[in-house]
Amino acid sequence: MTSRAYYSELIEEFVGESSDQILGVLSRRSSFAVEGTQRDAWVEQIRILKRILAPYRRRGKVYFEYSVPRLGKRIDVIAVIDHVVFVLEFKVGESEFSSSAIDQVWDYALDLKNFHETSHDKPVAPILVATRAESGATVVAAAHDDIVLRPILVASDDLSVAIEQVLALCDGPIISPSVWERGRYYPTPTIVEAAMALYGGHAVAEISRNDASAINLSRTSESVAEVIRSAKENSRKAICFVTGVPGAGKTLVGLNIATKHIDKDSELYSVFLSGNGPLVDILREALARDRVSREVATGRKMKKGTAVSEVKAFIQNVHHFRDDCLQDMARPPVEHVAIFDEAQRAWNLEQTAAFMSRKKGRADFKLSEPEFLISCLDRHQDWAVVVCLVGGGQEINTGEAGIGEWIQSLQRSFPEWRIHISPQLHDEEYGAGAVMREIADRPGVHLNEHLHLAVSMRSFRAEHVSALVKHLLDRDADAARAMLARVQDRYPIVVTRSLQKAKSWLKQQARGSERFGMVVSSQAQRLRPHAIDVRSPMDPIHWFLDGKHDVRSSFYLEDVATEFHVQGLELDWACVVWDADFRYGHDGWLHRSFVGSKWNKINLPHRQTFLKNAYRVLLTRARQGMVIVVPEGDIEDPTRAPSFYDPTFDYLSSIGFSQS
């Protein structure tokens, strides 16, 4: 595991080695030119630790600049001493402990605990050292249930006292450094973290799990890459469908392909396209911010506008791509590979024709969005590949065509295109039975089991949350109870009638910079008495990316996000507020839309499906746990009658969710 750190050595060797030798190793292994400030920080850390760790010379090992790919950063120092893993973050020259620095060292500790195999059952102690802070009383709080301590804030002179207190407080067997460092790292990044890591040069294998219980995203990525290579080498055109449950990693596969082929001068140049406006905006902003900060860290300056321009080249809104292709109906796009995220949301013929007539002045437009997008790539004379990332049961808006329209477009207009698809499609959410029958006799169809991602990786705590939600929404209470029994020990789900209790629960659960927020259905229009107005504008960029001190962020629990804001994204902890738009009834779900001053029944089957899928999206956003609020209603308000809410709460309670 020495490759994970710039420098690692037994404490005995570290204490005896010259500071210049250690500094030389750190400088040689650094991935960027070492600036004076970084060199000075290392010198100070080495000086402090040589003195502090001397009493433990035969009791452990020290690691400098330990890589955390999921976060795209490096931990200053890890010290494995006796039975404890110490995570040390130094703020050289600082006299204060900023909240961001406290969250930083806490995040590092949680990352090790959650994703590093041999740290799962070990006490992990995050310590923040401000080298110019005044010496004072060292406070070591009791560890959380997962034996991660709260961050310990110390001056340099108090570090030895903190280490002794932690060793006395925590129990456990002696850790073998050689065994600990061989532990595998199984990260499960958010899509924003994954995009930043991939854009920063990490491979998908570095930032994704690949244990036996989870789908190996590398295999899926390799399967797609092979389709691209084969198409280019044989001058063919192909379409590849990557399907999967919510949170399985479909978008990660697409981003991996796009970041590998980001060079515009390459024949394999790829573009990542999404019709999900909030996702595009958030990813672009996150990547631009990260690019600027990485440049600053290496001593270079970059204007944010420059970074944004670079990012826009490979993450585009599919509608802008479409409009560009409309300018010249014969000219092929510069990209030979187009990756369509959430391809199930592409518009059907009716929706596309109406838009083209109304907005583009093209009354004679007769193609669905899937058919037109394939035709754009088909303009290439040699080869082209379309990669469709398709979620099941996630169509949430009028005119969204699902996977079926892509297949029908190929059947109608592109008989020479080869189709790569998984044979494992079976759930009704995909309409997969009809899809597979459509192409049963078509030549050039290739079945590949690695193209379907059946296990959600959004929640690293419990892979079966998406299955639990499916059973819940299908009103299969027995199956939901059985699945809850499999997830509840590691993935807490609480139901309550009190929004205030829910907010308190979220704040108690979250640690470090773990993000939490409230999500509601876009049809949830009778939550205004609870200060929730779905029609009130919110900025997804600020909501998802800004910190705890920004009132526009999700942390403030003031603005809410709907299914349209959060699809494709995730929170660590979520509060789902369940309104009377989707109610539990004796014979099935009751679908309602609030118009004027009353709830109206939704009769159209596709609109009923959209509403059910909206709650599927909301209930699968949280990575670590969620609280569901079903308000009590108000007997004096006919639009919020308790009878609208009580059956839903009773149904959720019957499944066995904890109550608060």
Descriptive terms for the model:
660 residues, 23 helices, Rossmann fold, 3 domains, eight-stranded parallel beta sheet, Trna Endonuclease, Chain: A, domain 1, alpha/beta
Question: Overview of this structure, please?
Answer:
The protein is of the alpha/beta class and 660 residues long. The protein folds into three domains: 2-181, Trna Endonuclease, Chain: A, domain 1 (3-Layer(aba) Sandwich); 216-276 and 314-453, Rossmann fold (3-Layer(aba) Sandwich); 465-659, Rossmann fold (3-Layer(aba) Sandwich). Helices cover 39% and strands 18% of the residues. Strand 2 and strand 3 form a beta hairpin. Helix 17 (465-473) packs antiparallel against helix 18 (477-487). The longest helix has 21 residues, at 277-297. The chain is globular and about 80 Å long.
